[in-house]
Structures are given as structure tokens and as C-alpha cells.
Amino acid sequence: MFQYFPTNYVWSLSTMIALTHGGNVGEVDAMCAPILEAARAGDDPGTLAFYEAWKGGGDRLITLAEADLQRGHRLSAGEKFGRAALYYGIAERMQAHGFEARLQMYQRSLELFALARQHGRENCERVEIPYDLGPQDIASDVAPPRGSAELGAARRSAGVHLSGLLVRAEGLAPGQRAPLVVVMNGLDSTKEMLAKSVMGTMFARRGLSALFIDQPGTGEALRLQGLPAVHDTEVWASKVVDWLVQRPDVDPLRIGALGVSLGGYYCPRAVAFEPRFACGAVWGANHDWRAVQQARLNREGENPVPHYWKHVQWVFGARDLDDFFAKAEHMHLNGVVERIRVPFLVTHGERDRQIPLKYAHQTYEQLVNCPKKDLFIFDASTGGVEHSSLDNPNNAGNQIADWLAEQLGGTVA
Description:
globular; Rossmann fold; 8 strands; alpha/beta; de novo design (two linked rop proteins); about 45% helix
């Protein structure tokens, strides 16, 4: 992986996310060069400097985009708003839970992403999926601080929902139903981030629609709805499928699932317990996430974000570290993937520094009831050797998309 900050994997990971999700290398370099020295102090110190540098890069793009609009250049403005949304999202992602400006920054990134879709005429529609639960199921204490309690209360009174981004298959005739892939976030990704990855176009070109979803514990579900992550993925995945099968543009018999990073746990669990999924795939296996947490406690492996233990407690609505580890105890796939009875693909980077390769083999070996199972290990010859192939998502992503297209009746020609 290109490591902009030679001594800091976590900061370099965010930089690579920007570069592989629509960022501009010149802009990224301009934001990162002044904070090279700050990165040497470690993952957590200096994240305020990171925030200010990346917010500044977004601010400059907003000024340029607004000038484009004054000239009537909406397409140009849309591109700039899109990159500003990305840079704001990266800046927010790197802060600890409790950072004063975090919620405001996140909301502004959503606004900028919406402006990018509007002015850029993108094939990307925001959708909301009903997710009504009892009050006991909504952890108000996990919502961000500084004014978010009122926001969460307003959202809950209006009905809880999961937000998503729907990218439609290309070339559909009026009234035609398309196969669809539900794309599940990892621990710290969002629907906007993944929609701007190679997945934002590679499914549509193969005749597959895609739904990028902020499931509980991620994106809007966590920040605006107060919904923490849960181990029993099927609770929310089944509600997503309920909504999809009622849509006239979705083929209810050809709905697949793809999980990225921690989605490598969520997706197999969803496919195991929700029989309406026609197939599943993981971009990075996560067979035993509870064991990974114990290893991280012993400083084994890399973290995905700074202030890691604060972050996971927020994501899971945990009172403290002990409560988090009690919740994480459920996060494994032993006795789960044996239930999967549809085609399933396991992929992993050979040199993944966050999740050991052995977990890909464990998931694959336990898929004993699959009519078709495949294992792709991305190595130096293919690229994509790092976590979820962030070092080279193009080759790995296209291989995954081809596999899903073959299962769901899309096209690879």
C-alpha cells in the first residue's frame, strides 16, 4: 500500500481511501504535506491537525464549486462538491467520539454529497427504508454529543429508518426488474464512501443495481438515528429485503449481498439467516472478530481508525470496554456459515494487516452446505493485497463484480 505517512498506517489508510474513492492526488498531497511531522507522533495525537488540513481542502473546493455555479457550470461544480464531501467525511472519520465538531462535519458532508448528486446528474438516489423498533432498541446514549440528542429525538418521533444510496443498473428498459447487490458497510465506512469506490460503477455496468446501506452502527444509522451495531445482522438485513422485494425495479429472486471489511462478518450472517438472498460475497473475511479484538488489545495487527477503543464502544453502544467485549463475544461465524445454502464468495488480501488471512480460510472451509463456494486470495500478481484491497481496489473489485454478475444473471461481456 502506498503509505503517505511512512510511520503511520492509520493516517495512510485514510489517505488511500481518499485516493481510491474519488480524491485528487494533488489535492490530497496539498492537505497531507503540512502534517507529515504530526503523523510521526502516532495514530491518536495530531488528529485535530488532520481535521483542520482536510477540512481546509474541502473548504477550498466548496469556494471553487460555488464560483462554477455562478457561471452556470453545474457539472464542474458537482465534481468539486463530491470531492469536498469525501474530504469532509475523511476528516470526520479520523476524530474521536466526542469531538465537538464531528456531528456538524458529518451533516455538512451529507449536504455536499447531495449537491454533487444533484449538479452532477449522478445515477445515485437517496432512499429511506422503514426500520421501526421499540424504544428499548434505540440506544440514545450512543448518539454524538453537542446538540445531537434533540436531532435524534426528532428523528425517532418521525419513525426510525435506514438510509441508503440506490445506484440503478445501466440499460434497463421501462418496467424491467434488475438483480441487485446490497452492499454492507464495515466498522467505520459509510454508504457515501462505498458508493464513491469502484463499486459505484462496476455493478451498474454489469446490469446489476446496488444498494449501499448505512446499517446500524454506521453512517446515519449511528450518527443521526442512534442505532448501535448488533451481532444478529438478520434483524436489519431482513427489513432491507422486505423493502426491496416490494420495488417494481428489483427482481426479488436475484438479490445478492456483499460485505466489506467488518461486513465480512455481517454479510455471511445475513445470508445464513435470511433465505431470500440469492448469493453472498465478502471483500475481506471477518470470521472471528471477537478474536481480532483480543489481539488488538495485545497490540497485534493494525487499527482502522484513531482513538480505536472509544470508536468501537460508540459503534456498539457499550457503556465501557468490558461491556464492549461482552457484545463482541457474539461476533464470530462458527456455527453460522454452515447454514448458508446459496453460492458464496470469500476474498481476502494476502497481506491484510488488520484481519489475518487465516480467517478467510476458516469461513471458506465452514461453507459446507454451499452449492458453489469460491475463495479468491489477492496477491502481488493481482494487487489488492491489503485490507479490503485498498492498495488496488480496481482489479479485486472487478473480479468480485464479475462473480456476482455471474450468479445473479448480469453481464460480464
